From TrEMBL:
Cofactor(s) demanded: FAD
Location of the Glucose-methanol-choline oxidoreductase N-terminal domain: 319-333
PANTHER family linked to this entry: DEHYDROGENASE XPTC-RELATED (PTHR11552:SF115), GLUCOSE-METHANOL-CHOLINE GMC OXIDOREDUCTASE (PTHR11552)
This protein's UniProt keywords: FAD, Flavoprotein, Signal
InterPro entries for the chain: FAD/NAD-bd_sf, GMC_OxRdtase, GMC_OxRdtase_N, GMC_OxRtase_C
Biological process per Gene Ontology, one example term: secondary metabolite biosynthetic process
Name this polypeptide is given: Glucose-methanol-choline oxidoreductase N-terminal domain-containing protein
SUPFAM superfamilies found in the cross-reference section: FAD-linked reductases, C-terminal domain, FAD/NAD(P)-binding domain
Length: 647
């Protein structure tokens, strides 16, 4: 563990002042540099993809591994690293894909804005570095929604089947005793951690002076602090670690931990600035036709296309938006849609690109008329002297000061029975009725949705009803870094479903996203319950002590449910940047794309998906920690299969 820590620190220090990660002989930029063929080809050099590449290349030193990544290798600072003011992130820190969804009719035609990583490291190199996991009930729900057809599988994706991979995927470093005592950090290494992988999480040596204000407020609202929230039990007030190096406070991401830190490795190649166009089965879908060819396009060389041969497997790890587009361009998707798009159908798989989910929500906003004498506060960053010292502190070893904080380490996670004790049973009953009464569920999905996807959605509604009825399964998240004057209501388990589709004018362009937020009207009822719960913070003794005055939605708007619903529709953030679930792990009869072994339904083998698109349901957390665990588990599944006699 010590050597892994020192090695990763050395990597972090070596890139701290540069524009890119160290280059290695494994880095490839054009087709002429590639081998004649590879055993494993991984589509996408992101969080899960690089995890798989690292584990396969280590487990099979005589087998070759190629990662194909659209982006380039570049240094990935934290979103609040210098020279920002911390009060606002740097939108140009690393390359990103930026999307605006189609207009959402149910939310006054507003569009969702989503940014994902376009660089080696993927979204782990571009995200907010909030490193939490879902509760045990989130992952148990993945197994539950799979139904009796998937339950007999020896590959388990429930909490007990995932916890070992969570622990393996990250090295957690305990804060120094003085820092832990100063801020009240708590943790449980044995219950949640123990790994030695050079993907790091830790608590920073800094918090804003007024961070405890909301913590006191939540306790006055009846929420209980938890010692550790990454061990499966999460309802209450949580400390959440940050995905950063414990010494330098630089971002820790898969491009560092699963590529740079493991080089040189002679069987591990990385091809950058190239797009995977499609996969092709030249021998058709015969039982022993082998893995598909991978058609690759140069991003910078006039779109030159060429084939790369995989001898063992192709693993698509391109993320919730790009994994389905690769499959769709390959002719794997809804047959009716593919015909309309002019793509020959290889496999009729209606679930590809369906089932899109993301966190969203409105907020409560206030001002203090009797602010406390706290120091330091975020507005101190406007003082050139304070900011200069903060920058100096960040560049010291070990790092200190505001820039080590990233976006904060605190959040509440609250179940629906605690959010709305008087009404949650009625909400749960309504969700169950959607799954059982006529065509109600289908009416909330896109027109002409395949019956298999409808059947799977009904199962999802039943599973979600169970989650919402569980007093230990969070329904609401509110993160914070200081008392600020705002509290956002993350709706953790949405009922609405969107789609990812090819651009009809250019199939190689970025996909078209239809988020369809609030297309299931019960989502609005859940948002309403969350918002009414958060408004109660303004009636606590702590908020009264500081003279908190509500700015929005305000007492007048909150006087009626209809007015508050209108406020939600007008102001809610449509994406908290956690898209998932567009190649779900369900049976083919229920709109699934992969099984528990992650093999794509209907293929003769040799093609799997390993990223957050495989989740059937959105978890109640930010996604990067789970994406690492998915990559770890996927790698173990593949290693076990290819370690058997005969391979």
């Amino acid at each position: 563990m010590r050597m892994a820590l020192l090695r990763a620190i050395a990597v972090s220090l070596s890139v701290a002042g540069t524009s890119a990660l160290p280059y290695h002989a494994s880095l490839k930029r054009q087709v002429s540099e590639l081998r004649p063929d590879y055993d494993f080809i991984i589509v996408g050099g992101g969080t899960s993809g690089l995890t798989v590449a690292d584990r396969l290349s280590k487990a099979f030193p005589k087998k070759s591994v190629l990662v194909v990544e659209y982006g380039a290798i570049e240094y990935a600072p934290g979103v609040f690293d210098p020279p920002t003011l911390w009060t606002q992130s740097d939108p140009n820190a690393v390359s990103r894909w930026s999307f605006n969804s189609l207009p959402n009719p149910e939310v006054d035609n507003h569009t969702a804005f989503i940014a994902i990583g376009k660089t080696v490291g993927g979204s782990s190199a571009a995200n907010g570095m909030f490193f939490d996991r879902g509760s045990r009930f989130d992952y148990d729900a993945w197994t539950e929604v799979g139904g009796p057809e998937l339950r007999p599988s020896k590959i388990k994706w429930n909490w007990n089947g995932m916890i070992a991979y969570f622990k393996k995927s990250v090295t957690f470093t305990e804060p120094p005793p003085a820092i832990a005592q100063k801020y009240g950090y708590t943790w449980d290494v044995s219950g949640a951690y123990g790994g030695t992988t050079p993907i790091f999480s830790s608590y920073p040596p800094f918090q804003w002076g007024d961070q405890p204000v909301l913590r006191e407020t939540w306790e006055e609202m009846g929420l209980e602090p938890r010692r550790e929230c990454a061990g499966g039990d999460k309802e209450g007030i949580c400390w959440v670690p940050t995905s950063e190096d414990p010494i330098t406070a630089r971002r820790s991401h898969s491009g560092l931990g699963h590529y740079a830190a493991v080089q040189p490795r002679s069987n591990y190649d990385l091809l950058v600035k190239h797009q995977v166009v499609r996969v092709v089965y030249p021998k058709g879908l015969k039982a022993k036709s082998g893995p598909p060819l991978v058609v690759v396009r140069s991003v910078s060389d006039a779109g030159q296309q060429f084939n790369v041969t995989a001898k063992a497997e192709v693993i698509i790890s391109a993320g919730a938006f790009h994994t389905p587009t690769v499959l769709l361009r390959s002719g794997i998707g809804p047959a009716s849609y593919l015909r309309a798009a002019g793509v020959p159908t290889l496999i009729d798989l209606p679930g590809v690109g369906s089932n899109l989910q993301d966190h969203s929500g409105p907020g409560v906003f206030w001002n203090y008329t009797k602010p406390g004498n706290f120091s330091p506060l975020p507005h101190d960053m406007l003082d050139p002297t304070f900011k200069a010292d903060a920058t100096t502190g960040f560049n010291q070893v070990p790092a200190r000061g505001p820039y080590t904080l990233s976006m904060g380490n605190s959040a509440i996670y609250v179940s629906l029975p605690h959010v709305a004790p008087a009404t949650y049973r009625d909400l749960v009953a309504k969700i169950r009725r959607l799954a059982t009464v006529g065509n109600t569920a289908a009416s909330y999905l896109p027109p002409d949705t395949d019956p298999s996807v409808v059947a799977g959605y009904k199962d999802q509604l039943q599973t979600l009803a169970n989650l919402f009825a569980n007093a230990e399964a969070p329904s609401l998240e509110t993160p914070w870094a200081e008392s600020g004057g705002s509290a956002l209501a993350f709706h953790l388990h949405p009922l609405s479903r969107g789609t990812v589709r090819l651009d009809p004018g250019d199939h190689l362009a970025q996909p078209i996203l239809d988020y369809r937020m609030l297309s299931n009207p019960l989502d609005l009822d859940l948002h309403l319950a969350h918002l009414r719960f958060l408004r109660k913070l303004l009636d606590t003794p702590t908020m009264r002590r500081y003279g908190a005055v509500e700015l929005a939605p305000g007492p007048a708007v909150a006087a009626t449910d209809d007015a508050l619903r209108a406020y939600i529709r007008q102001t809610m953030i449509l994406s908290f940047q956690h898209p998932c679930c567009t190649a779900p792990m369900l049976t083919r009869a229920k709109g699934g794309v992969v099984g528990p072994d992650l093999k794509v339904h209907g293929t003769p083998g040799g093609l799997r998906v390993a990223d957050m698109s495989i989740a059937p349901l959105l978890i109640g957390s930010h996604l990067s920690a789970t994406a690492y665990a998915v990559g770890e588990k996927a790698a173990d599944i593949i290693i076990e299969e290819w370690s058997k006699p005969g391979h």
